[in-house]
Specification:
This protein is mainly α and 212 residues long. The chain folds into two domains: 8-58, Arc Repressor Mutant, subunit A, CATH 1.10.10.60; 62-205, Orthogonal Bundle (Tetracycline Repressor, domain 2), CATH 1.10.357. It has nine helices and no strands. It has helices at residues 12-29, 39-45, 50-56, 63-84, 93-110, 112-124, 131-149, 160-181, 190-205. α4 (63-84) runs parallel beside α7. The longest helix has 22 residues, at 63-84. The chain is elongated. The termini are far apart.
Length: 212
């Protein structure tokens, strides 16, 4: 069963109410986990009403697709600008990988509650994601993959393009688990985690390690 993609209200007043409700959830996620947030808290923070909330959402979980759409749109614009910057000309693969994971980890930590809720939804929702969500997610991965593949001559893996995408999958998944969910078995700080995940990806790609 496919998840219905979030729709947008046609009237400006209704859009303003929706925006306030979404902003309220984002504010509350800086203070507590999504599971601990109540609808009453959302409408109170948004200066709205329970009726207005349920006019737009059938449950609290229905808020997440809207927040994901918003986050994906913002990320896509930022990454497009990021990879198009001329400053990357001549920058090697190792430096690109380390810069990417440093920026990604900072983004995760700054938006920990929101990203954690979205990642949890991704792995717990058995429904098929809306095509637009899938398209944007793939576009984000493709932008970074193409940016890294500008350094393809440095990659010793026999299938550079496939290796980049597979490597990004296991690296980003590891980063999400380590930073967002803080497993009890973790016995190292965030900086070391980010550094070694970058090194692991570089080793998988066949790039000689050089800690600088």
């Amino acid at each position: 069963m496919a998840v219905k993609a979030p729709g947008r209200p046609k009237q400006a007043r209704s859009q303003a109410t929706l925006d306030r409700l979404l902003a309220a959830v984002e504010t509350l996620l800086r203070q507590k986990s999504f599971s601990d947030i109540s609808v009453a808290e959302i409408v109170d923070t948004a200066a709205s009403s329970t009726g207005a909330f349920y006019k737009r959402f059938s449950s609290k979980a229905d808020v997440l697709p809207y927040l994901l759409e918003k986050l994906q749109t913002e990320q896509l614009a930022k990454i497009e600008s990021f990879v198009a910057d001329e400053k990357w000309q001549g920058v090697n693969l190792a430096d690109r990988v380390r810069i990417f994971f440093k920026i990604l980890s900072q983004s995760y930590l700054q938006n920990r509650g929101l990203v954690r809720a979205l990642v949890s939804r991704q792995f717990s929702d058995r429904s098929e994601l809306p095509p637009d969500e899938i398209r944007k997610a793939r576009a984000l991965v493709d932008l970074i993959a193409e940016w890294l593949l500008e350094c393809e001559p440095e990659i010793r893996h026999p299938s550079p393009a496939e290796a980049i995408r597979v490597g990004m999958f296991f690296s980003i998944t590891g980063l999400q688990v380590g930073l967002l969910f803080r497993p009890p078995s973790k016995r190292f700080n965030d900086a070391l985690l980010v550094k070694e995940i970058a090194n692991a990806l570089l080793a998988y790609l066949g790039v000689e390690r050089s800690d600088r």
